[in-house]
Amino acid sequence: MIPTEKWIINTICSKRSLCFPVILFLFTILPFLSRGDDGYRLWLKYDKITDTAYYRVCQQHLQSFTIVGSSKTLEAAAKEIKKGLGGMLATDIKEVSFRDGQLILTKYKDLPVRLKKQFRQDNSSHEEGYFIRDIEEKGKRKIFIVGQEDIGVLYGTFHFLRTVQTRGRLEGLSIRNAPKVQWRMLNHWDNLNRTVERGYAGLSIWKWDELPNKIDERYVDYARANSSIGINAVAVNNVNASPNILTQEYLEKLAALTEVFRPYGIRLFISINFASPKALSGLPTADPFEPEVQRWWDNKVDEIYSIIPDFAGFLVKANSEGQPGPQDYGRSHVDGANVLARSLARHNGILIWRAFVYENKGNDRVKDPYDEFVSLDGQFLPNVFVQTKNGPLDFQPREPYSPLFGALPSTPQMMEFQITQEYTGFSTHLVYLAKLYKEVLDSDTYTDGQHAPVAQIVDGTLQGQSMTGMAGVSNIGDVQNWTGHPFAQANWYTFGRLAWDHELSSKQIAKEWIEMTLTHEPKAVETIMAIMESSYEHMVNYMMPLGLTVLSSGGHHYGPQPWQRAGFHNANKDGIGYNRTSTGSNAVAQYTEPLRRKFEQVETCPESLLLWFHHVPWSYHMRSGRTLWEELCFKYNDGVDGVRQMQQQWRAIHHQIDTATFEQVDRLLAEQEDEAVWWRDACLEYFSQISKLAIPTEYEAPRYKEEDLKKKEKQSQNLKHYSVARPYVMPQKTN
Ligand code: BDP
């Protein structure tokens, strides 16, 4: 039990002479002592093990370690062991000789011959792979963490620490692991002025003005956290990219970051602006067919590699939402991508070209990525990835998977998920996104007429792609706990874990994260798991149920504004929804059979996507027996009830949670409840006016009436702390 401030003061005051100086001292330090967990350590908490039986086992077997070989990566592994086990056992972990070590960290090739033989079956040929084995050697128990390369040793170390953090059994430990996807990547949408596009957790963690001279400790902890979940690449700046990232000044800053990333196996990408040759060197054009443009990129790429020898490559948003691109010169995406890819290939660099393109020509924009890219399949150079958002529209709460997955058999395709919650509640709402990621990865594409989940296209097993990757748009900022909402950390965590192994279940990942981050008390773990597992569907229900999309405000996307979004929901007095069948935009034709037929028929279309594919009469009979209008009312109210249930569940376990964290989440859940009600009231009020149908009386009366909604809408326009898009605007040339 931690003594309260009052108790301490009373006790001391009973000894008069001590009273004044001690009180003065306590007032100075108490605010720091009682602050609680600030969330900075993320899931790498390493607090002392309180389960005495487990503690004893660890104390007996994990007092000392040996590291075979030397490199910065192995040093990082040793540091992590000392920090991790040192924290959990509350003791110093000693580095000792091979003979005495209880825990051995080594590469396979550095093992003595007899052990190499013994472990032959376990060895993974994957360069990032590792195995962990508990064996008895000459009467002593030893745990081996063995990597194919140094980075495998580090990944194995994090896996081992996770095992202890989640109180896994050590006896007979036998683990063999390697990632399923090659590039597991975070994409930061961080601007060079430190604002973060769609970031809700403060400013960018990259302090460009201090770099390259000052290395913030946070960079190291960022690298540790990423490495612990297997992330091996980051693009540090916004896809709406400033050309300045390519100046020598910034390249030097970037080089300093790579020094921090390298030991942790993290490779650097940057987002570039396609018109950089014009903006930086005054070339008259950025036309990819102009030899001087190719030369410019060659020189720039050479310069980058002379400063950052293991530079990974470029990420490019071109001809999308006002960004410059090859189409400005009548060239195709292939033409644009290949000019950059050619320069990068000379150094084994990679180009990631985004498929998020749409023209705003009044057509159904969800068709654009497929229409633009399918005909280009097979024409990109081998070092080009096409990066495709999970759905065909834009990170909405629920979309069908993007039909580009499966449709580019000769092009490596990188999945792009959003971790930051642009359309899913900012950093105010508790929404566990593993559910969304899994739903997409598990979607059957029926490519080539066979069962083929999106995951098998992403990991290359179905179409034999040589490069594979998964990217997540980061939710990280410079606030103390990195992500704003403490549960938003779980989305960063889950993204990394799924990118490493998409077969893990959302439950499994949630359990790990909870035990590493919040509590080990079984009842509380169960309850939090239930909260997390249900949270995604609640959010879909109170924001955009039944396949509705983009009902959020324009610009900042905070809060509901369905009255401004008619083009997305098409509600009128007869019905609601976007007709994407053959009688409408025919986007359904982009899916293979039997999906096409399934989506085309209103009777067979999954109700969760009904209004994505169909315009449906308000009186349509749903499977529940309700009419569509009644179902909509039910869903919105159900979503709100879901949040209230999460509040109750959370309150029921407050004794098992650190006080500061408990209170923060409790406050946020109250805000989430209010915003869920706001969403429900705004959407139902508006759709009720359009459909001329009343909200059934069985539901609670709205909290927000029309005039309140207007007020809220106005207020939200002025919310400064909600980050908004600040695309880079090309400077006007004056001469
Ligand atoms: C949209 C965001 C916008 C991004 C864009 C993108 O609103 O800020 O720039 O996606 O992915 O969802 O490029």
From TrEMBL:
Which residue numbers delimit the Glycosyl hydrolase family 67 catalytic domain? 164-482
Classification via InterPro entries: A-glucoronidase_C_sf (IPR037054), GH (IPR017853), Glyco_hydro_67_aGlcAse (IPR011395), Glyco_hydro_67_aGlcAse_N (IPR005154), Glyco_hydro_67_C (IPR011099), Glyco_hydro_67_cat (IPR011100), Hex-like_dom2 (IPR029018)
Q: What residue intervals traverse the membrane?
A: none
Domain Glycosyl hydrolase family 67 C-terminal positions? 483-698
Q: Which reaction does it catalyse?
A: Hydrolysis of (1->2)-alpha-D-(4-O-methyl)glucuronosyl links in the main chain of hardwood xylans
Assigned keywords, A-Z: Carbohydrate metabolism, Glycosidase, Hydrolase, Polysaccharide degradation, Xylan degradation
Lineage top rank: taxon: Bacteria
Q: What Enzyme Commission number(s) does the record list for this chain?
A: 3.2.1.131
Q: Which residues form the Alpha glucuronidase N-terminal domain?
A: 42-160
Give the family per the record: Belongs to the glycosyl hydrolase 67 family.
The record's note on quaternary structure and interaction partners says: Homodimer.
| Protein name as it appears in the record | Xylan alpha-1,2-glucuronidase
